[in-house]
Amino acid sequence: MKLSKPNNHRTRYAEVLGLCLKKFSDVLIIPIQKQPIAQEEVSALAKMLSGLTDANEDAYLSEAISCATANLFRGAAVLGWCAAIDRIHRVIEKVGFNKFNTVSQQMAAAQSGRFRRFNKAQNIPSISELREVFDSEILWIIEGMQLIDSNQHTRLRSCFDLRCQCSHPGDAPVTEYNLLSFFSDINEIVFRSPKFQLT
Fold this sequence. Notes:
Layout: H1 10-20, H2 24-34, H3 39-48, H4 55-69, H5 73-95, H6 97-109, H7 127-130, H8 135-144, H9 150-167, H10 176-191
Helix pairs in contact: 3-4, 3-10, 4-5, 5-9, 5-10, 8-9, 9-10
């Protein structure tokens, strides 16, 4: 829209826009003032995840960053968890399913200690079948394999819980700060950990 002189001042534009779109301020201005797009947080997320070289993970994480840029924080968390659990699956495959199965059976047989309530012994022959195992059970077993400690397990369990909250209906809000904390944990505990490197 272009107004000719002498009616081309800011106040006249606002007046004409007000006539054209009666709720101009309510629809366009107030939402931006209340919640500006969190570019700083999104760029921190992109910086945090830079330098990861796996093509499969990069596809998930690039899409997660795109979701975060569009304020689709739930989608970003779901995609981030997909990348993290995929890395965990492939490390288990690298270490060997025999070790994974043996450790899970030892944990299920424990009568005392931290794993005494664990009862999900596994007999997994392939990564395809591993993907059928519930993620919370995998977290217990990788702790038993000493790929993570109990504190890391707790933090990853929180990440998994956020992923579940994001992918199922509910009223719990997911903010950019929740998302940064989530990605910080999976980045440090999984993607950057020497125990989860594939090469």
